[in-house]
From TrEMBL:
<dbReference type="GO" id="GO:0004373">
    <property type="term" value="F:alpha-1,4-glucan glucosyltransferase (UDP-glucose donor) activity"/>
</dbReference>
<comment type="similarity">
    <text>Belongs to the glycosyltransferase 3 family.</text>
</comment>
<comment type="function">
    <text>Transfers the glycosyl residue from UDP-Glc to the non-reducing end of alpha-1,4-glucan.</text>
</comment>
<feature type="compositionally biased region" description="Low complexity">
    <location>
        <begin position="533"/>
        <end position="542"/>
    </location>
</feature>
<dbReference type="GO" id="GO:0005978">
    <property type="term" value="P:glycogen biosynthetic process"/>
</dbReference>
<feature type="compositionally biased region" description="Acidic residues">
    <location>
        <begin position="545"/>
        <end position="558"/>
    </location>
</feature>
<dbReference type="Pfam" id="PF05693">
    <property type="entry name" value="Glycogen_syn"/>
</dbReference>
<comment type="subunit">
    <text>Part of the GYS1-GYG1 complex, a heterooctamer composed of a tetramer of GYS1 and 2 dimers of GYG1, where each GYS1 protomer binds to one GYG1 subunit (via GYG1 C-terminus); the GYS1 tetramer may dissociate from GYG1 dimers to continue glycogen polymerization on its own.</text>
</comment>
<dbReference type="InterPro" id="IPR008631">
    <property type="entry name" value="Glycogen_synth"/>
</dbReference>
<keyword id="KW-0808">Transferase</keyword>
<keyword id="KW-0021">Allosteric enzyme</keyword>
<keyword id="KW-0320">Glycogen biosynthesis</keyword>
<comment type="function">
    <text>Glycogen synthase participates in the glycogen biosynthetic process along with glycogenin and glycogen branching enzyme. Extends the primer composed of a few glucose units formed by glycogenin by adding new glucose units to it. In this context, glycogen synthase transfers the glycosyl residue from UDP-Glc to the non-reducing end of alpha-1,4-glucan.</text>
</comment>
<keyword id="KW-0328">Glycosyltransferase</keyword>
<feature type="region of interest" description="Disordered">
    <location>
        <begin position="521"/>
        <end position="598"/>
    </location>
</feature>
<comment type="pathway">
    <text>Glycan biosynthesis; glycogen biosynthesis.</text>
</comment>
<dbReference type="GO" id="GO:0005737">
    <property type="term" value="C:cytoplasm"/>
</dbReference>
Length: 598
């Protein structure tokens, strides 16, 4: 619960030209008048530096540590250094500006990092002034950090400074924690998604919902960067494999990406209305049937089943069935798109031919709007929706960290990520066999697009072949990785370096800098392979296809994990010797005067 100071940049907009001139005189960075976002960044930067300067002039100035995030806030950092304020500075880039633009342009980004002419590339995309603000902040900061190893390599080549430390993004795990209830929450949310499916596919509901798997991809609508292109291609190949192997599994893939729309699709709304009408009809017939059954039992007679339903009941049910007749295919998009013919997802779906036909074992639903509990179509919050799905698929080409697979992990939902995402690299580094814990890592760095697509298809097909029991066990393992992503532990590394950078202007007592950090790797679960078929604690019912002789004690496996898994970082100790800390200067050299000795 931090204190917050809000700065109104519009209130001082009259100073914009004067501050732009000062920016040019001191840093040789010119900001064009038409870039409103960059103009706001200039105003915010000067106001931030003014605020920190006022705080530093207090009679008893506090120890000031300013942590700036992204290029929009970076100018304030550069001004603090230019004005020589007694402020220790940290700059964190969560994704380089130029890297995001280059990847969106379909270039072979990671194999050509060292060859880019960064000034020319930024100029060609008319973001040179923004790039200069970002690079200046990175170069001027006492400590430069980023969120993943893959982004550190990117920043070293594009911003011309190697990050001093990596600070992975964590989550407030307590917010998502459901303890032993997360399996029940999955079942409840899955039932709500199934209700939506019943309405969306009315008239074509020729598949078994109990053998239906829900996959999803969510995030900003960046078709290539987020991997929606490779996901769609893999779904087409998965559809072929399921049909050739005569699988009884049906896959429903959700695309939750906001796009330009003008309203809900009428056919989609009609589907939910038809479903509700069928439900009301069934409830009415059930009440009348129950009343007749009750009256028959009251007089001590067994009911005549042939007389329990009269002509009115049959007429009512026939009308309801007639209302479910549908001449067209179930819609793919739940909304009316403003640019339907040019939309990347819809264009790709037309090419691969996934039109939700009865013969397809893979169905696609494109929901071009963020989820909300007030929606008339799918009244669920994002967290509820994720809990109800079986697998999150995030085959991103450019993903500096990746909160979506991390959120899946803390909610016990398996996910597919890539070795080009910060989350994927982090999991590969700390888990001996990620796939055993429901974290599938797709290789998009050292393989071509077609090879990566085949690998993703293989992951999806293997997941479809898992039994219900195996999926339950896998979700248990996934949820046990929650502590790995907890800010309580990941924040320790940042706290350590924050204390170190403060020594620039305020010498600290070395005993306050006692931290211990050590790497770790999760072991491979003893039950893999093969996946066990029975878990008495996860579900009381055993399917007919499972055998009793291959029993699996989930408590015993959890205890093994607790003994073998170590936290990423131990919390600071108040006692014991402090670790040496040497502060790198803004030019990347070691600043001996800023070091804290044992």
């Amino acid at each position: 619960d931090p204190y917050v100071v809000l700065i109104d940049v519009a209130f001082t907009a009259w100073n914009l030209d004067k501050w732009k001139k000062e920016l040019w005189d001191n840093f040789s960075i010119g900001v064009p008048w038409f870039d409103r976002e960059a103009n706001d960044a200039v105003l915010f930067g000067f106001l931030t530096a003014w605020l920190l300067g006022e705080v530093a002039q207090c009679e008893e100035p506090p120890h000031i540590l300013a942590h700036f995030h992204e290029w929009l806030a970076g100018l304030g950092l550069a001004l603090c250094r230019q004005r020589q304020l007694p402020v220790a500075t940290i700059f964190t880039t969560h994704a380089t500006l130029l890297g995001r633009y280059l990847c969106a342009g379909s270039v072979d980004f990671y194999n050509n990092l060292a060859d880019f002419n960064v000034d020319k590339e930024a100029g060609d995309r008319q973001i040179y002034h923004r790039y200069c603000l970002e690079r200046t902040a990175a170069r001027c900061a006492h400590v430069f950090t980023t969120v993943s190893q893959i982004t550190a390599v990117e920043a070293e080549h594009l911003l011309k400074r190697k990050p001093d430390i990596i600070t992975p993004n964590g989550l407030n795990v307590k917010k998502f924690s459901a303890m032993h209830e997360f399996q029940n929450l999955h079942a409840q949310s899955k039932n709500r998604i199934q209700e939506f499916i019943r309405g969306h596919f009315y008239g074509h509901l020729d598949f078994n919902l109990d053998k239906c798997l829900f996959l999803f991809i969510a995030g900003r609508y960046e078709f290539s960067n987020k991997g929606a292109d490779i996901f769609l291609e893999a779904l087409a190949r998965l559809n072929y494999l399921l049909r050739v192997n005569h699988s009884d599994v049906t896959v429903v893939a959700f695309f939750i990406m906001p796009a330009r729309t003008n309203n809900f699709n009428v056919e989609t709304l009609k589907g939910q209305a038809v479903r509700k009408q069928l439900w009301d009809t069934a409830q009415t017939v059930k009440e009348r049937f129950g009343k007749k059954l009750y009256e028959s039992l009251l007089v001590g007679q067994l009911p005549d089943v042939s007389k329990m339903l009269d002509k009115d009941d049959f007429t009512m049910m026939k009308r309801a069935i007639f209302a479910t007749q549908r001449q067209c295919q179930p819609p793919i998009c739940t909304h009316n798109m403003l640019e339907d013919s040019n939309d990347p997802i819809l264009t790709c779906i037309r090419r691969i031919g996934l039109f939700n036909s009865s013969a397809d074992r893979v169905k696609v639903i494109f929901h071009p709007e963020f989820l909300s509990s007030t929606s008339p179509l799918l009244p669920m919050d994002y967290e509820e929706f994720v809990r109800g799905c079986h697998l999150g698929v995030f085959p991103s080409y450019y993903e500096p960290w990746g909160y979506t697979p991390a959120e899946c992990t803390v909610m016990g939902i398996p996910s597919i990520s890539t070795n080009l995402s910060g989350f994927g690299c982090f999991m590969e580094e700390h888990i001996a066999d990620p796939s055993a814990y429901g974290i599938y890592i797709l290789d998009r760095r050292y393989r071509g697009v077609d090879e990566s697509c085949n690998q993703l298809t293989s992951y999806l097909f293997q997941f479809c072949q898992q039994s219900r029991r195996a999926r339950i066990i896998q979700r248990n393992r996934t949820e046990r990785l929650s502590d790995l992503l907890d800010w309580r532990y990941l924040g320790v590394c940042l706290s350590k370096h924050s204390h170190g950078v403060l020594s620039v202007s305020h010498p600290l007592n070395p005993t306050n800098l006692s931290f211990q950090a050590q790497g770790f790797r999760y072991p491979r679960p003893a039950s893999v392979p093969p996946s066990p078929s029975l878990s008495r604690h996860s579900s009381p019912r055993q399917s007919e296809a499972e055998e009793d002789d291959d029993r699996y004690d989930e408590d015993a496996e959890a205890e093994k994990d607790r003994l073998n898994i170590r936290q990423p970082l131990t919390l600071p100790s108040k006692k014991g010797p402090a670790l040496p800390y040497t502060l790198p200067g803004a030019n990347g050299e070691k600043n001996g005067a800023a070091s804290v000795k044992n």
